[in-house]
Amino acid sequence: MNIIEIKQLTKIYKLFEKEAGFRGSLKSLFNRKYTEKKAVSEFDLTVEKGEFIGLIGRNGAGKTTLIKMLTGIIAPSSGNLSVLGYSPNKLENEFKKRYAVVMGQKSQLFFELTPADTFILFKELYDIPDEEYRKNIEYFTELFDAAKYMNVQVRTLSLGERMKMELITALLHNPEILFLDEPTIGLDAVAQKQIRYFLKEINRTKGTTIILTSHYMEDIKSLCKRCVVIENSRKIYDGKTDILFEKFQLYKKITVSFEEETDVKLPEDFEILEKTPYKMSFIMPKEKARGIIKEFFENYKVKDIAIEEEDIGNVVERIYKEGSGSYYE
């Protein structure tokens, strides 16, 4: 069952241009110049209930604009858009009660209040029944290990702790769709890992459909079985995440430790990162990995060997560069 259907969705912004200085300001009073920018262009997308989808794209590619149209914050310029059977831009109260949105750079918490006070406020805003509210508070505070933060002012919490509270606030009314725009931005590695675990549990146990935008590709790779890549306002890929990374992840990093002093000569297409008499690290084409590892064990006294995937940042840069203007199924 499709709960989101988008056909030929387009959003065009009209941008005012003004020359610098007082003279330019005066001229703009009588002769205004505008340019048009397509933030989202002829976009098609369908989302089934319970999916966890990642949106990938550079800054300015159109990800946040798409999220804002899906939630009714801004209106599309043209095209058809349906979310849960509603037209988002009509902003019907029944529709607003069935989704939630969390933006990593914008808070919905009140910094002078405690999270417990904020939760009570949102209970009233969303008309959450007492029993449902109690059960959700118990479930989410246990899942997020958040009981110790409930009765302290939000402004005293760390960024990671506040993000947990943001997610609880968004999920209190059992939304059918959760829109997340950069929820792990600025978080340390431990906090990012915790947030990823919580989101995976919400999707699994509650069946909540989640649309996630993130520049941290580990978020996309570990959470989203399906991803959509947006480049220059257009969709250039819509399919399985593992297939996408398999296509563009071209290299592996190999680190070898030796039991004795060893000098190894590598092919020219291998990039040496570190080389000492007892250890070497290099990047190589992934299709040659099996052969080179076999050669090491047959010809050298290997103490240890580690194989790592290519840095995700390099893979994403390649997706944008090589995938631009194309569409991959």
UniProtKB/TrEMBL annotation:
A Pfam family the protein falls into: ABC_tran
Classification via Gene3D superfamilies: P-loop containing nucleotide triphosphate hydrolases
Keywords carried by this UniProt record: ATP-binding, Nucleotide-binding, Transport
Domain ABC transporter, first and last residues per copy: 24-257
Keyword Amino-acid biosynthesis: no
Annotated SUPFAM superfamilies: P-loop containing nucleoside triphosphate hydrolases
Keyword Mitochondrion among UniProt keywords: no
A GO molecular-function descriptor: ATP hydrolysis activity
PANTHER family per the UniProt record, alphabetical: ABC TRANSPORTER ATP-BINDING PROTEIN, ABC TRANSPORTER RELATED
Protein name per its UniProtKB record: ABC transporter related protein
Organism encoding this protein: Sebaldella termitidis (strain ATCC 33386 / NCTC 11300)
